[in-house]
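CORE FACILITY INTAKE
Project code: CF-77B
Contact: R.S. (postdoc)
Sample description: multi-component assembly, four entities in total
Requested service: structural model of the whole complex
Turnaround: standard
Below are the sequence entries exactly as provided by the requester. Do not edit them.
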Amino acid sequence: MSDPDQTPVRRGRPGYAREQILEIAVQVFIEQGYDATSVASLASRLGLSKSALYHHFASKEEVLEVALDEALGGLEGVLNGVGDGSARDRLEHVLRGAVLVLVDKLAYVTLLLRVRGNSDVERAALERRRAFDRTVTALVRAAQAEGTVRSDIDPSVATRLLFGMVNSIVEWYRPSGGEGAPELARDVLAVALNGLAKP
Amino acid sequence: MSDPDQTPVRRGRPGYAREQILEIAVQVFIEQGYDATSVASLASRLGLSKSALYHHFASKEEVLEVALDEALGGLEGVLNGVGDGSARDRLEHVLRGAVLVLVDKLAYVTLLLRVRGNSDVERAALERRRAFDRTVTALVRAAQAEGTVRSDIDPSVATRLLFGMVNSIVEWYRPSGGEGAPELARDVLAVALNGLAKP
DNA sequence: GTCTATAGACCGATAGAC
DNA sequence: GTCTATCGGTCTATAGAC
């Protein structure tokens, strides 16, 4: 791979690229809800005919699948780059990484967090989320075992509370103005690990 | 009110009480989504005709309105019973109270947290939620001023993180098995105020 | 001519109005 | 109980950049 950053040369008739469609589609899904969004209304929002849309995606559900994979891939990537420090260090890395991914892929993660399991695609996404949670829970348990995290809270409850806090960011964070992602991650780490009370 | 626990004597043809209908309706709204639930399907789920349902509620939207009021009333009640201790004490009271209300009225609060503002009723509910948040934010600010809460985090961000954690409980908590509400509230207080790291 | 994106007519299924 | 609008999806042909 000589230049992986370079966009492949677009040939043929100009038009939407898959990613552009995906981005707008996710926005529409968030606004109207996935189920409530018809392919026709999606196409109209894109300024496309249905058939043109179906040239890029095999089905409405494939659009959802690719979008959810974007979010899940980002989160799972955080687990992969976790390194080999103490459980406490790894936990910090995962929390910070999750916040950064969430901000970076805000719309995709928002969509992911609204999935309720109404189809095979949604259920598969939920299962990947659960696997992510299980890994983090194991990390919390390890940190408790090494004595760096308090042991009077069930690791599964602790993980759910932590990620409840992290995930809730999609409900209010907007990139323009206010804090940037690194500052937000710092705040989350501070509350999650040391609490809001003055030391 | 001499005996608020006593159910008033039911007269006339037996049938659903408003609260029973409300409870089941909220369950259906959560399962299918409010917009996606037709009055016909709601009535069928209740084993009622549409006209019987409309005897109890003027409209589908009124069902939603009453349900959201149940959740919001519970949360606002926590603010009213806050007492006059230090800001730190009042903040603890609000957090614990919110967890208890959330567990007690789990379905109603779940519905409230899914509202996106698609109608006047929904927008009114969102505004009441925002008012609640503003009050809590002011409380966090007061606690920072009195020196009991760390001041290196914006009070509005801190409030959102705290209630992100609290609200996320509806996503996984189920009354049967596991912790009870008081234990859960204790865990939330512990993480929120003192953090997950070992002291 | 080759390649890609697009348009429009058209299915069968079905949910919801009447 | 019937009827119609809309649903997700298909097929064929064409428009436009190189």
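Facility notes:
- Residues 120-146 of chain B form the longest helix (27 residues).
- Chain B has a mean pLDDT of 91.
Invoice: internal transfer
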